[in-house]
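README: folding subset

This subset contains proteins for which both the sequence and a predicted structure token string are available. Records are stored as plain text. Below is the entry for D-xylose 1-dehydrogenase (NADP(+), D-xylono-1,5-lactone-forming) (377 residues), shown exactly as it appears on disk.
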Amino acid sequence: MSSTTPFVVRWAIIGAGWISEQFVHDLAMDPSTRDVNDVAHAIVAVGSRTKAKAEAFIKDYCPEGGFAQKAGYCDLPVVAVEGYDAVYARDDVDCVYIGTPHNDHYFSAKAALEANKHVLCEKPSTINARQMKELAALAEAKGLFFMEAVWTRFFPLMYALQKDIHETKVLGDIHQVNADFSIKGVGREYLDEGVPLSHRLLNPDLAGGAILDLGPYPLTWGLMTLFHHPENKLAPPTAVSSSMQLHPETGVDIFTTFVLDFPKMTARANLTCNLVVESPADCTARIQGTKGEIIVPRPAPRPEKYIIRLDNGEETVKEFPVPGNGYHWEADAVARCLRDGLKECDRMTVSESIMSMELMDEFRKQGGYEFPASLAQ
Ligand SMILES: NC(=O)C1=CN([C@@H]2O[C@H](COP(=O)(O)OP(=O)(O)OC[C@H]3O[C@@H](n4cnc5c(N)ncnc54)[C@H](OP(=O)(O)O)[C@@H]3O)[C@@H](O)[C@H]2O)C=CC1
Ligand SMILES: O=C1OC[C@@H](O)[C@H](O)[C@H]1O
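--- output ---
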């Protein structure tokens, strides 16, 4: 093929659920629709606990595999596989995408790494820091790539916003970041309608709750703006404090607010998530500096614009339309890392996933959210 042939990643998908459906949609998109030509994605296997479910998933969402197969860059078909272990055992898989509930991430990621597969694992990477540290050590020992799939970090919007506040310094010195990602998951009317407490959001056996499910997004806004600020020099937040309200029946957190201090900049992140009421539509994140503020409208995971409002009255709206679902940018980043032989991605490092899990462990400790004894850890 010509020198413009893209580098192809052969993906396997673990868990035929909602997020896997969203992810494969984007792997099947033509990368040139987002101005990408150097990498392309193949989907070679979908693993489910039930073979019929994997077959139906492929038929409905990725019958031709990924773009690489459609374009002739990969001649493998996409196959339905019963059981996750049978996927890890395949020789034709480069990287495994794990789209299972939180409680399973550690076990699936560990099995995939032990079978010498690179891993992109949905957020949160694990349910506690100890598990994440184990995965980090295993990936390192095996020389394999591991990344937590915090997709928002890879949006062009996030790069542009960081440039504005970290390099151009449009806001002057930054002192405060507020971010909220909340969804109406367990409001009164939902409970009255009998939304099952067994759902992964509410189920303690699946490590449900707001902090593990939604918390990664306000945390992302806090970390990408303050932790990654050049003046912070990647110093972990100090004086971490949090408050939780727990679900009366299942004990998972339904409201969590946490505060991270970054004293090198005299800056603070006030971050929140809940499963009861929606975040405000017009502002999911607000970054305040000495010259003005940036407002990011909802939703926190998939932002499409931000507004720079300066104290001198100037206002600028920056728009970043998202082609497809928006998961392709993280997939492209993984592909480039694999192409370049990197074991982690500098946009979402393994050590930052460990730090995130340490923070979440602390929030759960402060808020009294204890995992049930039945939850394997
Ligand atoms: N990045 C993002 O934007 C989003 C990320 N997520 C993350 O993705 C993960 C999955 O969420 P989502 O897709 O909404 O969940 P779903 O319940 O829709 O899918 C999860 C899949 O995991 C498999 N699974 C394995 N063990 C279990 C179990 N004990 N109970 C239920 N399912 C199990 C099932 O696949 P099978 O039966 O085929 O084996 C199931 O379909 C979570 O970690 C969540 O945090 C979720 C939504 C958005
Ligand atoms: O990552 C997520 O983003 C969207 C939410 O609705 C979902 O529960 C969560 O897992």
